[in-house]
Each structure stands twice: as structure tokens, then as C-alpha cells.
């Protein structure tokens, strides 16, 4: 066996085999401010991906209303005999409240809870069918203001980026002109770097020119811009339909690369980078959550171990002995005092008897004197 045949050079293939045996579960989450088209995007992704989509009408009807709770939609994809169980988690958008923590905290908790649940399931003796909703990619929707990221975006993105593969998305790409979009993108990239926000970056494989070029082009397009469309496709020529949004001046097309990055994003998620997203969730995000949890559990047990330290045991014994002696001494003092009282009572009783006897004597004498007088 040569050096080339072992280790890192063959790793991608070995890793692929591990996952492909049972197929894969891929969980995608959407998050961000309210009304940015998250639910619409989920519908568009389903419509454009699945040949027999899930109940679209019901989904679309739900989609046009603001999302009020975390919703999971499941589907199954098959790609070259490789089965993918797809879960999409739609979340309620954050409002313009002074304190938005209540709206984004449940999303952060959801991600942590999935890691936690996986840890618990792994500790069970039966390691069979595991329920796994760990988030492999979180699309964070940014309002297309043309300015920059808001403080709220920065705060939430920081929290999400340390927990899962965070992919920033510019919503409603049809509302910005090409030039504005490019400037907006580069400003967002600057803020992400300056604020140290961790985002998912497609890995560049140095030994494969084609895939490294593809990764570079993806990185250059980030943050991806998207357009979401309603249920009905638009007829652009007799019998030819496209997904998009119709305007008096024309159509903003979802799958046109000159209009937005929907196709790039879909291919990254469901084809080129799905495996990397799954593996990095396991190897990076899940493992760091596990380590953090185990460390804090250990610190807890260290604290309780201190109580069983022999040194503390000795101190405890000495204290107990001291108290027992103190109590004994007090008891003795009390007994002595009780004894003194009893002796004193005896003495007083005796005195009393003597006085009474004297009285009796004197009374006798008085009686006798009186009788003598008579
Ligand atoms: N111009 C434009 N409008 C869009 C786009 N995507 C969605 N919308 C519209 O934006 C509105 C809100 O869409 P939703 O999908 O409900 O937004 P959401 O982010 O799920 O909102 P919450 O559930 O409240 O967080 C709807 O009227 C959509 O038709 C888009 O790409 N461009
Ligand atoms: Mg919604």
C-alpha cells in the first residue's frame, strides 16, 4: 500500500460510503425577520425540487400568512439511487419589537435541543432508529435594504453561526437593481468579517480543479440572493412556463442566474455541498456541543467530589467531636445545678420541719400554761 492510498487522500470517498449506506437525512432551517419570504422560499424550493410535491395548495395557503410556530415539513428525494430524507424547518419571523429575544431564542433553543436529544439517544443501550432533526444548514434571510446588516441580524447570526452551518441569504432579490445588489453583498461580507460572524464556506478542494472552481464561484456569490414565487408558474411563451414574479416591466425569474442566486443555492444545498453540510454538522457543531456539555457536567461532578475529599472528612469529624463535647459539658453543668437545687430543697424542708416542730412545742407550752392557770 502506498502513502497515497491511505489517510487523507482517500478520506472523502470513505466518508461518502459511511453516509450512503443508509441514505441521508438532511435538515434545512429558514430564519430571519418577519415578512421576508421565508415560507414562500420553502414552497418554491419544494415546487422546484419534488416531482410530486407535498400538498402545495395547503402549504401555499399557510405560507401567505405569517408563520406563528416552528413547522417541520418532510419529503423524500432520490438522487442516483441515493435516498435523502429532507426536513425543512420554517420558523416565525422576528418582529420590530424592542426586545426581540423572545422571537429568536426559541430558534436557537431548537438547534441546541436537537443536539441534546442526539446525545441522549446515543447514551441509550439500543442504538437503532434515532430521531435526528439536527439542523445541517440554516438560511438566514436579510432584508434587502441596500444599506447593511441591522444590529438584530448581527446578534442572531452570531448565535446561529456557532451552532450550525449558517448561510446568509438576501431576500426578495427582485427589489434591488443589479448594481445595488452587488454593493449590498460586499457591504454584508465586510460586516460579517468585521463582526467575526461564523458562516458556512464551501471547502476548496485543492486536488480537484473543477470542484475548487465551483466552490470559489459559490464563495464569490455569497450572500446568495433569492426570489420566492407563488404557486402558479408564469407563461412566458405558448406552453413555456417559468417560476417568478410578474411586474409591469417584466418577470423576475427564480431560476434565472442573472436575476438571483436561487439555482446556485439549491445546487449547493441539495447536490454539491449536502454531504459536507451533514458531515460538518456532525464533526464540528455536534462535537463542540457535546464537548461543552460533557465539560460542564464534569465541572459539576468535580464540585461534588470535593465534598468527599478526605481532608474535608477530617475537618467534619473534628467539628462533630467538638460539638459532642460541648453538649456533654453543658449536660453535666445542668445536672450539677439540678443536684444543687435538690440539696437546697432538702435543706429548706428540714428547716421548715424544725420551725414547725418549734411551733408545735411552743403551742404545747401555751396550752399547758393556760390549763395551769385554770
Ligand atoms: N417582492 C418579493 N416579494 C416576496 C418574495 N418572496 C415572498 N414575497 C412576499 O412577501 C410576503 C411575505 O412572505 P412570507 O413567505 O409569508 O414571509 P415570511 O418570511 O415567511 O414571514 P413570517 O412567517 O412572518 O416570518 C408575501 O406577500 C410574499 O408574496 C420575493 O422574492 N420578492
Ligand atoms: Mg413564514
From TrEMBL:
Q: Name one GO biological process term.
A: mitotic actomyosin contractile ring assembly
Which CDD domains does the entry mention?
Answer: CDC_Septin
Q: Which GO terms describe its cellular component?
A: cellular bud scar; Gin4 complex; mating projection; septin complex; septin filament array
What stretch or stretches form a coiled coil here?
A: 345-372
Q: Which is one GO molecular function term here? A: phosphatidylinositol-5-phosphate binding
Q: Which residues form the Septin-type G domain?
A: 22-296
- Principal localization reads other
UniProt keyword list: Coiled coil, GTP-binding, Nucleotide-binding
**Matches recorded under InterPro entries:** G_SEPTIN_dom, P-loop_NTPase, Septin
Q: Name where it's found.
A: Bud neck
Q: Name one Pfam family in it.
A: Septin
Q: Which PANTHER family match?
A: SEPTIN (PTHR18884)
What protein family is recorded? Belongs to the TRAFAC class TrmE-Era-EngA-EngB-Septin-like GTPase superfamily. Septin GTPase family.
Protein name according to UniProt = Septin-type G domain-containing protein
Organism classification: Eukaryota, Fungi, Dikarya, Ascomycota, Saccharomycotina
Amino acid at each position: 500500500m502506498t502513502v497515497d492510498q491511505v489517510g487523507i487522500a482517500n478520506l472523502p470517498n470513505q466518508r461518502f460510503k459511511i453516509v450512503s449506506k443508509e441514505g441521508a437525512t438532511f435538515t434545512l432551517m429558514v430564519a430571519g425577520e418577519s415578512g421576508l419570504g421565508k415560507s414562500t422560499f420553502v414552497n418554491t424550493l419544494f415546487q422546484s425540487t419534488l416531482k410530486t410535491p407535498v400538498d402545495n395548495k395547503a402549504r401555499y395557503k399557510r405560507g401567505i400568512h405569517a408563520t406563528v410556530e416552528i413547522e417541520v415539513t418532510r419529503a423524500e428525494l432520490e438522487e442516483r439511487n441515493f435516498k435523502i430524507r429532507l426536513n425543512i424547518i420554517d420558523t416565525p419571523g422576528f418582529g420590530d419589537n424592542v426586545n426581540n429575544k423572545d422571537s429568536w431564542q426559541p430558534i436557537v433553543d431548537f438547534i441546541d435541543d436537537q443536539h441534546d436529544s442526539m446525545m441522549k439517544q446515543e447514551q441509550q443501550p439500543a442504538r437503532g432508529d434515532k430521531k435526528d432533526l439536527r439542523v445541517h444548514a440554516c438560511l438566514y434571510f436579510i432584508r434587502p435594504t441596500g444599506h447593511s446588516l441591522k444590529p438584530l441580524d448581527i446578534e442572531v447570526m452570531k448565535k446561529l453561526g456557532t451552532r450550525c452551518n449558517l448561510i446568509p441569504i438576501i431576500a426578495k432579490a427582485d427589489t434591488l437593481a443589479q448594481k445595488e445588489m452587488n454593493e449590498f453583498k460586499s457591504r454584508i461580507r465586510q460586516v460579517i468579517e468585521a463582526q467575526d460572524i461564523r458562516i458556512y464556506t464551501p471547502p476548496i478542494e485543492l486536488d480537484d480543479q473543477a470542484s475548487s472552481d465551483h466552490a470559489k464561484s459559490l464563495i464569490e456569490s455569497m450572500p446568495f440572493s433569492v426570489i420566492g414565487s407563488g404557486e402558479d408558474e408564469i407563461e412566458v411563451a405558448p406552453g413555456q412556463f417559468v417560476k417568478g414574479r410578474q411586474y409591469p416591466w417584466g418577470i423576475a425569474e427564480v431560476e434565472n442566474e442573472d436575476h438571483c442566486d436561487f439555482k446556485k443555492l439549491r445546487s449547493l444545498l441539495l447536490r454539491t455541498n449536502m454531504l459536507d453540510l451533514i458531515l460538518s454538522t456532525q464533526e464540528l457543531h455536534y462535537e463542540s456541543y457535546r464537548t461543552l456539555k460533557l465539560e460542564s457536567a464534569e465541572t459539576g461532578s468535580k464540585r461534588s467530589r470535593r465534598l468527599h475529599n478526605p481532608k474535608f472528612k477530617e475537618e467534619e469529624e473534628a467539628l462533630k467531636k467538638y460539638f459532642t463535647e460541648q453538649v456533654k459539658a453543658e449536660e453535666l453543668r445542668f445536672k450539677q445545678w439540678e443536684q444543687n437545687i435538690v440539696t437546697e430543697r432538702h435543706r429548706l424542708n428540714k428547716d421548715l420541719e424544725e420551725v414547725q416542730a418549734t411551733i408545735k412545742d411552743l403551742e404545747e407550752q401555751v396550752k399547758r400554761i393556760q390549763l395551769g392557770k385554770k
